[in-house]
Specification:
Carbamate kinase, VC0802-like, binds magnesium ion, 12 helices, alpha/beta, binds aspartic acid, 16 strands
Length: 442
Amino acid sequence: MLVYKFGGTSVGSVVNMNHVKEIIGTNGKKIVVLSAMSGTTNALVEISDLIKENKTELAQKQIKALNEVYKKTAYDLVQDKVLYQEVIQYVNYIFTALLETVSQPHSDLIHNSILANGELLSTFMFSRLLQQDGVKVALLPALEFMRIDRGNEPDNFYIKQNLERLMQDTSDADVYITQGFICLDADGNITNLQRGGSDYTATIIGAAIEADEVQIWTDIDGFHNNDPRFVNDTRALSHLSYDEAAELAYFGAKILHPQTVMPVMTLDIPLRLKNTMDSNAHGTLITNKVHGEGIKAIAAKDNITAIKIKSVRMLLAHGFLKKVFEIFERYQTSIDMITTSEIAVSLTIDNILHLTTIKEELEQFATVEIDEYMSIVCLVGNHIIYHPDTPQLFQVLQDVNVRMIAYGGSNNNISLLVNTSDKLETLQKLQRYVFEDGIVAI
Ligand code: ASP
Ligand code: MG
């Protein structure tokens, strides 16, 4: 069975939803995971923030404005009278409940419940659009099978059991539709898989049902060899290995939620990225196969903090790194990049929630310097560190101030740490040195 996931733009208008309907076609059973219509989750975050700040009238005004958008979409989307009535009743039900939350005390749970409405609305509407064409549809409520555990990892056993049960209960359906992003936590409260999490939903489901393939449909024709928001003339990559895609997603390529690759990687389920707006474009196929060698793609991740930790006891202080890492572990702060010298270690983090305490603890035995507003520029490609053309990238060192380099940590990643203010220039220069001046990328 195939699992399809369509992002916010793909379901962001009546025209696009009809397009999605064509893409999934009518032959064979499939699961379709949907995001909220584009702009909706952002609007819901804003509404929740207004409620939190007790800006009641403004919150009500924004809820009503969003309600109007959905009434109009429902009207344009579904012509069948009975199905239209069902959609409009559902829209009313969601927005009435949303208006009620304005007068309730705000909490994280209320926040997450507000955010869940986007996916609930898009999936309900899309299910009725398909029913209008006579398609046998079952709406699988994500909140009845998608759950994370106390470590925020998918609770795979629970997910598989419950998903299978729900699918068996509706076994005559051809198209199963479900909400991306939303799930329950270990206590049964509504939460989500973080922004952009619908991609992750799709691969978690793909793994649970051992799908033949998971397809993520967005508004771009796959992973590009550099960030198209900052660099001209980037091009789509037709093939990536799971490792390459995971590194790119983690280090900033915005096209995929960073954890998406993990669930399908261990089961060797192909993951395909496709463009809803250009369904004939090849897209990117991600499998365990390795295509080509050398630098294939460049991505950048912002909001990085660099920490330089210098041992006060100077040379040969064994056990120093152990003490350092234990502190980061205690505060559940993961380290992205690391370089060391005899007396100092520099590392980077992106979660600064516990930075003050971590710094205080490190200062018990080391001097600590902190640099904010840094970006990691990550170069990915199979056997990148051995490739004869790779040294070309170091031309960038003549022009940009590189704070740290991680080379050799894995065979297919080289990372550079630069000031965020130098990121644009770094990406553009690398594009020139690496892709335009010779290195052959696949
Ligand atoms: N709707 C959610 C978001 O905007 C999840 C997703 O689109 O993947 O973050
Ligand atoms: Mg997305």
